[in-house]
Amino acid sequence: MRDDKAVLVTYNLTRTYGAVKALDNVTLTVHKGDIYGLVGRNGAGKTTLLRLISGQSIPTSGDLELFGTTGHGAYKHRNRTGVIIETPSFYPYLTARENLEYYRTQRGLPGKGLVDEALERVHLEDTGRKKFKSFSLGMKQRLGLALALMNQPDFLLLDEPINGLDPEGVAEFRTLMKELNRDHGTTILISSHILTELASVATCYGFLEQGKLLEEITAEALHEKCRTCLLATVDNAPKAATILETALGCSSYDVLPGNVLQIYAFLDAPQKVSAALSQSGVALYSLEQKGMDLENYFLQLIGGEQHV
Amino acid sequence: MFNYLSAEVYKVVRRPALWGWLAAIFAGEVLLLYIACSDQSGLMNFAQGVIFVPRLLMIGFLAAFLICDLVYSNQAKTGTLKNEVAFGLTRLQIYLGKLCSMWVVSLAAVVVVLALYLIPCYLLLDHSAGVIEAMWGLGASLLAALPLWLGAQATCCALCFATRSEGLVWTLSIGIFLGGSTIVSIAVTLLGLGPFGPLCEFLVHMSNWLPDSLCQVLHLIPTFNWEGKYPELVSISVDIIQRCWIVGAFWVFVPTFLSLSNFYRKEIH
Fold first, then answer.
1. Is A265 exposed, middle or buried (0-12, 13-18, 19+ CB in 10 A)?
2. A204 with A219: CB under 8 angstroms?
3. Which residues, listed in sequence order, are joined to residue A213 by a DSSP beta bridge?
């Protein structure tokens, strides 16, 4: 589904609050058809970035390009986006249907059926006269999603969209995202703390830390980087690397700092590696099999076992 | 803009508070009609009933805050403005959309409230004499009050966009529109400017241009020293009407410009 055409490009986007740089020269690209997962700790700048894209906040410097239009003109294309940022906000004294009808009228969207369709899609069609103020967090989140989907957007911006959803809701949400992306070509930019959920839908990732974009990577490249391997800690990594190549004919390895070798072969026969190294006089301190998931990769990237 | 206005009206008519306020005003009108119909002096007729109306027009200033609250719906707290910005509506569209909606709702409310008073008045009271003069008088009062109402509404709207505190909006708007000249008098006294100093004269002159001074000139604020007599038709000159429009325009444009400038830079949550 990925297309070379960019739906969103940010150019050195910066937002400061007093002396604090909430976002620091962020340049990223979301291509058409991507499900772009934004990963970062609390306060890393994920919500600030989404708020800048959606126009709720104004950048201190930098620019963004939305559907090929930069500067002030970008706002014209915001009607092609659907947005959930932070807690969904609606009028507390209106019902779900009335709230959506209000926004449908305001946005000039044709066809009253859009409201029913959006409510059915998130299973809120039977809420009747219940006012928004009496909704549970999960119901509020569903209504937020209904509003985001009502204008059949080309680009969805979702900030922690599964907050408050029950397990069934999370599964439905996951299916819906995949469906929208596959069947309608909807591009999705999604931030979530629940990295396992993100990993199940995202096709590429951006890692944010202290307002800076550390890395952008596709899901395939990440999978490649995180694949299962043998981690060998030795006394002399260059010598061990030579032995791997000459004695075992293995070229699929990386040398990491701290005399660590990451070997992608012999996963079923690690004893061959230990035997070859010890026969050549290389001291092997440890040899373990390791595979990384998204969380481990992120933690390694930010350089510590900190909470995401 | 038509879509925006339609949506705002859709929302406002679903607010129970709107119907509560209209019911309260209607109850007041019923009471007034009851008093008028119970009059035994024989002086009470439709024309006299109409002359009462300008003295009730100051309700329009109090209603400015209420209507502003009905339309704006404390969006700073409910956070619904972000839904509008995120869809690509410009901040100018949003601001002017809210302001125009407030004007539309308040003008509709004026029409409803006046109709609910004048029609029964016409049906229940003698309307054989003085009707044309009374209606002209009412028309002139409305023409003079209209810009002041619009100014009050625009100021309330500006304050709503500028602050999250409803109490502050209420206090400032009432202070500006119903107590401005009193505040100037108190300031002159407290600052010890003396009754004849140039600064004092300037402030007193300027206070004549404040909305509440105009309300007194127009007899929009009810006085309770009628000594048993019914109020008489107040003659309103073109000069006064012109002054009302100038003052109204000031209170429309200046607060709107200042608040809109602030709204353009504002972070929306």
1. middle
2. yes
3. A208
Q: Cα–Cα distance between B265 and B140 in angstroms, integer? A: 41
Phi and psi dihedrals of B5, rounded to 5?
A: -65, -40
Q: How many independent structural domains does chain A possess?
A: 2
CATH code of A164's domain:
3.40.50.300
Containing A17, the helix (H) or strand (E) segment is strand A6-17
> In the predicted model, what is the mean pLDDT of residues A233-249?
89
Answer whether residue A10 is part of any domain.
yes
- Side-chain-side CA neighbours of B157 within 13 Å: the count stands at 28
Q: Which residues pair with A231 in a beta bridge?
A: A262, A288
Q: Is the pLDDT higher at B59 or at B34?
A: B34
Subunit contact B88:A103, Cβ cutoff 8 A: no
Across the interface, whether the CB atoms of B88 and A101 are under 8 A apart is answered no
| B148 and B215 Cβ atoms separated by less than 8 Å | yes
Alpha-carbon span A27 to A149, nearest angstrom? 27
Task: Quote the pLDDT of residue B1.
Answer: 82
Binned at pLDDT 50, 70 and 90, residue A98 comes out as very high
CB proximity list for A18: less than 8 A, separation 6 or greater: none
Integer angstrom CA distances of residue A234 from A261, B123, B200: 8, 105, 91
Q: What percent of chain B has pLDDT over 90?
A: 9
Residue-range definition of the domain harbouring residue A181: 6-218
Q: Is B237 within 8 Å of chain A by CB?
A: no
Kindly report the nearest CA distance between residue A88 and chain B, in angstroms.
8
